[in-house]
Amino acid sequence: MKLSRSEFALAALQTVAGHSMFTNLWVDNVDQGDGICVRMRMDPGSATDPINDLQSNNMACGFDGTQGVARVCPVREGAKLSFEFREWADKSRPGAIDGSHKGPCSVYMKSVDSAIKNTGVGDGWFKVTASGYDSKTSKWCTDMLEVNNGIFSYIIPYDLAGGYYLVRPELLALQEADKSPPNPQFYAGCAQIFLDSKATALPKDTVSIPGYLNITNPSVLFDIYNPQWPYPEPGPSAYQAGKSTTCEVKPLEKQTEGLLPDNVEMVNANWWGVKLDNYHTEAGCWNVG
pTM of the entire structure? Predict the structure, then answer.
């Protein structure tokens, strides 16, 4: 299907933002809550901006993504993980990404010692799923995000070892890839999870982020207005349980970080408040503070 630039320009004028960000992690079709276990940009004015520099550390977990958050979501073996993208982070308006933004989606995982402390930058990433262009429907993955209320999903490979992981959904928008210089636009973030599994496999073949793509790769230079099919999938091939080359490791049996305390009274994203001791005097007030 050949698309006109005028169609894309008209769509782009209908929104000021026109961009997207990963805001919510869903586990087995249950929304964990706005921002919970998700690293995201703290500046609301630029939170949905794209990543343009493919060699930037922002490619790993997004803007401000080298800093972990306080929550780590527990996930069962073989769970379904879903990632909600929003054009407006607070969902004050509907939409996942502007219609002019066409391109593929991918999900990567990285086994880490600490889901909170690891920056995400560097080697250890492996792809677990990808969706590009569907020639039967003439739809890109980004088109299907709108149909699916901004949600992209996959099933965790059944043989992955138990332990902490960073999980990285990625969108690539190609509407300016034909420009000079080319301007492919990435939208990525990281969820922090603990995989509760007795399995023992980890992929041997991993990639570094940043570094897994560069500006000369055909997948990031693809001209959506004059496409030469098939679309070349960006990055490595996806890991396949029971088929890909693995190494055996000892699974981590128990989650010890990122859990809510028993006496929690209030939760707001990755912040929580606990119940304070009763007091009746000024000294008691200072003590609980």
Answer: 0.91
Q: What is the mean pLDDT of each run of 10 residues along the chain (289 residues)?
A: 40 52 98 97 91 98 98 98 95 92 98 99 99 97 96 98 99 97 97 98 98 97 97 97 97 96 90 84 74
Q: Are 127 and 237 in contact (CB under 8 A)?
A: yes
> How far is it, in rounded angstroms, from Cα 68 to Cα 110?
14
Q: Where are the domains of the chain?
A: 5-258, 261-289
- Find how far residue 137's CA is from the centre of its chain: 25
- Counting beta carbons within 10 angstroms of the beta carbon of residue 57, is it exposed (0 to 12), middle (13 to 18) or buried (19 or more)? middle
CA dihedral sign, ordered 114, 120, 124, 129 = positive
Q: Which CATH class is domain 5-258?
A: mainly beta
Say if CB 258 and CB 115 are below 8 A apart.
yes
Residue 28 CB partners (closer than 8 Å, separation 6+) = 76, 79, 80
Q: Contact at 8 Å (CB) between 167 and 190?
A: yes
Please enumerate in sequence order all residues whose Cβ is within 8 A of that of 148, keeping only pairs 6 or more positions apart, or say none.
none
Alpha helices per DSSP H over the chain: 5-12, 58-61, 141-147, 282-288
- Residue 43 CA, chain-centre distance (Å), reads 18
